[in-house]
Amino acid sequence: MKIRNFCSYAMLIAFSFNINFSQAKSLPLKNGIWRGVFKVGEIEVPFNFEVKNGADEKPVFTAINGDRRDDFQVTHVSDDSIRVSLNTFETAWFAKIQPDGSIIGVQKSLVPGNTSRVYPFEARPGKAYRFVEPGKEVVPKSNISGRWVVKIQANPNATDKAAPDRVAVFEQEGNKLNGIILSVSGDSRELEGSVQGDEFLLSGFTGASPAYVRGKINNDNSITGSIGASAEPIRFDAVKDDKAALPDAYALTFLKPGYDKFDFTFPDINGKQVSLSDEKYKGKVVIIEIMGTWCPNCIDQVTFLAPWFKENKSKGVEAIGLAFEAKDDPAFAKNTLTKLKNRYDIQYDLLFAGKVGGNVVAEKLPAIDKFLAYPTTIIVGRDGKVKEIHTGFSGKGTGQFYQDYVKKWNEDLAKLISEPLP
Asked: Which domains does the chain have, with CATH numbers?
């Protein structure tokens, strides 16, 4: 599928900013499996989703990525126009249903003043393939299942030191390929694609922005390729290693020398000032999550922490989400954090810590040294001292990495909870 010409694209952009065109009447959004294609720069990134009727017969859009499913609500804003709200990410689709049942539209940010990352797309119903139409597959050169050490190629114009290695986990069955890329900040979420001859292609869309991986299997069975969520992909080389692992996530961020405690005061959703030193938290094990509603790995961490907290809060545990949001505006933050709280039934405090970007975490939390990633989890013991700081989060799709995280989490928290009051 090719994205249509520039004139069509310009009309799409105008439509996405609420400029009206003549409208057809009563064009339904077809139920079933769809295939869509985003345009990311000059790269086409395919994705699949399902449309079905949900509550009150309102359409529900379900993104499909390997075993992962993400649901989004569809609203008809006119007979032939839809809006798909992409949950907590403050982005949405604005699309028009075409006479042939396809849709054409854009994904854009809902943050006031943010006009970056506008992704045009088209999608057609009744097409279940991702990259290659059935019957046109090419026999794979090899099976790339397993773990891979991914070395990021240095940017010749960069002044920073080399990026840390990443880890890729692939599962291949014939031409079908599923995968996920892990880094110290988190993971790519689940990707789906195929192997064709000596090349492989993966893509993913879970609500934030489209992502893709393109690679070539070399004669020595190493891999070269690119990872992207923008028009400027990251180049990499990779070698297979069944023991591939990330750096210890508990040994990347620290308190500065001379600190074993820290404190902060930020407003909650309703504007009430909340401090770690408040009576509510004294003598408790406190989990502090540095996060943002715009951050996919933070959302994955919330889906773990929210139910865990509900199950364990009676044991002398508290949790606080410190949210750095896309806009330095309490009203904006109240809206985004309320949506997050309601969607995941969060029963711990959510505080607005400021606008994400730059060195804001270092400025707002000066006791923290070497902050690297959203999310970062800080665990405080009953004595008020920081016991652990964990950088990033590897979601369920990472398999053993996630299982190892959950095992250590439960063991560590059980030990801290069992400690007597100071």
From this structure: 6-125 (2.40.128.120), 146-240 (2.40.128.120), 254-418 (3.40.30.10)
